[in-house]
Amino acid sequence: MLRTEIKPDNFTYACIIRACSESFYLEGLKLVHCGVTVSGLGLDSICSSALVTAYSKLGLVDEASRVFYGIPQQDLPDLVTWSALITGYSQSGDCGKALFFFKDLNMEGKKADSILIASVLAAVAQIGNVGPGCEIHAYVLRHGLESHVMISSALIVMYSKCSFLGMGTHVFEIMPEKNIISYNSLILGLGLHGLASEAFRVFDEILRNGLKPDEYTFTALLGACCHAGLVKDGREIFRIMKD
């Protein structure tokens, strides 16, 4: 295409940017970014959103942030772009910036989805600060999102890691529907607080309800055994995992 007189448009560049991010081709992404800038599409909202998502996925969240702030005021970022940036900061361990941009998102009047909320709650859990977690929980309740299993499971883990296991247990108990992810979250929380016997009780409940334990279930149980000093039980769980 470049050898002809046909010039790539913003949609073409966006597709190439996405291909680079999905193949983790950083050098190619930077070359395409240069091409976007030279072509005069550097401020185009479609290209900018694609670049923010790509850089965030590749862990270059500061570069993603620079592109994000370069989006013109008249072309406000959509939820996908916001989510990519916030999730990028959360996964890179910069929880402070993840929370900062989440608050900015709310100020812009945009409604976060379950995936984004779970990502931000994971960031809160990493820093162990229950204050922002409670604010997000209030946001969830205001917007009627408490029935989402992904969000409730993230709340359980967040409260558990912030030393508020009782709140995490309460979230689990009032969930209208539970799946293996929510059970795993509770087992993880109980294990972190050394309550191995309670963790095994929840495991028995999983089996009674006909749910199939996965690798995360056994990893959480193994962690519970380690925290409680149950060497024999831990070895048995490890044996089951290997089998």
Description of the structure:
The model has no long low-confidence stretch (mean pLDDT 87). Helix 8 (130-142) runs antiparallel to helix 9 (149-161). This protein is 72% helix and 0% strand. The protein is built from 14 helices and no strands. By secondary structure, it is mainly alpha-helical. The chain has a domain at 1-77. This is Pentatricopeptide repeat-containing protein. One of its GO terms (molecular function) is RNA binding. PPR repeats lie at residues 78-112, 179-213, 214-243. InterPro entries: PPR_At4g14850-like_plant (IPR046960), PPR_rpt (IPR002885), TPR-like_helical_dom_sf (IPR011990).
Brief characterization of the structure:
The chain is mainly alpha-helical. The chain has 14 helices and no strands. Helix 9 runs parallel beside helix 11.
Features:
243 residues; mainly alpha; 14 helices; elongated; PPR_rpt; repeat; Pentatricopeptide repeat-containing protein
